[in-house]
Amino acid sequence: MTHKPHLYIIAAMSENHVIGQDNRLPWHLPDEWKHFRKVTDGKTFLTGRKSFEAPDALHSSYRNVVLTRNPNQEKQADIEYAMDLDSGIALLKDENEVFVLGGASVFEQALPLVEKLYLTIVHTTVEGDAFFPKLDWDEWNLISSEYHEADVHHQYAFSMNLYTRKTIMEK
């Protein structure tokens, strides 16, 4: 039996599910970035190519698997390429925890497989061209939520939430 890593999604979305505009985040939230770094430090990232190449993308200092239709990219020390989600997960069979960083289509493909959602809700509605997939909230338990007020460094208030997938018994 092959080992499969625990898959987690980490993302930030507006109240209208926007996660991006022109391959950038539509907000600047320094304390949310700190949270992201704390949660993902030393972990493996699984991401789509456009998200990986975004100007404001964060990369794992440990290991990055990038999904691309052209996996014959130049090899680099901490970057590997895979054609699709299944082959990306197969590359990561020896990892314990893997964070899925998007974009929208990668989130949609990975959502049925993930055990946890680290999902920041930015308390605003914004224009965007990339959206987080619709969630069936009946499948998720809210484990923790940390609210952050808008302030001089944060244009919008936001809540950093952790959800775990409900077991069959809980549904």
In short:
By secondary structure, this protein is α/β, with parallel strands linked by helices.
Descriptive terms for the model:
171 residues; alpha/beta; Dihydrofolate Reductase, subunit A; 8-stranded mixed beta sheet; 4 helices
Write the layout of secondary structure elements.
Blueprint: E1 6-14, E2 18-20, H1 30-40, E3 44-48, H2 49-53, E4 63-67, E5 79-82, H3 85-91, E6 97-102, H4 104-110, E7 116-122, E8 130-131, E9 140-148, E10 158-165
Parallel strand pairs: 1-6, 1-7, 3-4, 3-6, 4-5
Antiparallel strand pairs: 2-8, 7-10, 9-10
Distance between the termini: 28 Å
What fraction strand? 25-35%
Strand order within the widest beta sheet: 5-4-3-6-1-7-10-9
Secondary-structure-based class equals alpha/beta
CATH architecture heading: 3-Layer(aba) Sandwich
> How many E strands?
10
User: Which sequence of SSEs, written as H and E, runs from N to C?
Assistant: EEHEHEEHEHEEEE
CATH domain class name: Alpha Beta
Please, how many helices?
4
Largest sheet: 8 strands, mixed
When the domains are counted, the total is 1
The H-level CATH homologous superfamily, spelled out, is: Dihydrofolate Reductase, subunit A
Q: What integer value in Å does the Rg equal?
A: 16 Å
Task: Report the principal-axis shape.
Answer: globular
By CATH, the topology is Dihydrofolate Reductase, subunit A
Give the averaged pLDDT, no decimals: 93
The low-confidence runs, each spanning 5 or more residues with pLDDT under 50, are none
